Amino acid sequence: MINRIEIKNFKVIKELILEDIPLISIIGGKNNTGKSTLLEGIFLFYDRANPDLFMRQHQWRGLNALEISSYGMWAPFFYNLDLEQEIKLSFTVNEQEEKVVIKYNPSISQEIYSNFSQRIESRKAFFPLSTTPQGEAVELIYYINNHEIGRSHFILDGTDQRIKFNKKVIKPVKVIYLSGRRNPIEDAMMFGKLDMEGKVSEIVDDLRIIEPRVKSLSAIPFGNTSAIYADIGIGKKLPVSLMGEGTAKLLSMILSIASTKDGIVLIDELENGIHYSIYEDLWRLLIKLAQKYNCQLFITTHSYEILKYLKFDREVQNDNIVKYYRLSKEEDQIVSKHYDQNTLQVALENDWEIR
Q: 277 and 191 in one domain?
């Protein structure tokens, strides 16, 4: 469980600190105040052994073609595109500080460069507009309680990307990021594993808050992939992807949390595709699932209306498991104001502007 987050020089965030983080954190604020960036920083911290660590985040932002250079690939991760500033992501987890420092190195040593452990070919979707000098890299240095535990290097060589990493940096914490771009194939894989654990009936019950007609769910294979189909009582099973954005999105959330016991799920813009009539049931379901699977949730929203439907049952009130963080920009600094459950309820009951 993450208890504290400190982020420096990451994308639009010059410095941001969140403290006393509970099981469920709701993140609000105006556009370009770092809500999605906060989720991306959390994901990047735990995605450390993935050779697509940087490219994946570009694709989340819709960048399917970019300049294969330090400026195109890495500068967007640094505050004000300034590669001279170090990125620092620091997390306190169960009273232990874990940190990664990300540095740009324009002339990586020949020893590191020649002894890389894995080569990643340029993706066809990334069209090179220029090339880079041999040996240009970003270096990720990982610490626990200020003791270095390992490093990884992402190296650009012309239009190829290479990675060398020390396996000590691998962190066995599962994190799932849910943005507007769902991945039905990943959903089907999670569903299959949960099906083997006998959890399909629970998933169906939870999905009925948005689609009461669902009788059963099943994964139907097609060649090397599969898709989730639903029986809604019309004589034939229907792909969940054709049952509306809200139904498919809710299923993704249910599958992600149920598949991430003792892990973290990041949900960007919760309200998108969801009708207001199920907001109260949706909050109740998310709280139930987070507690059941001990899964920490970080949720962003622009919607005041969805906050208004956040109700706290007695057991939730006693545990104080939800907190709302409002991010705002003051000059060039993003700051956070937090509301615990009691303060949030008072604010909502009195129609205070907290978005």
A: yes
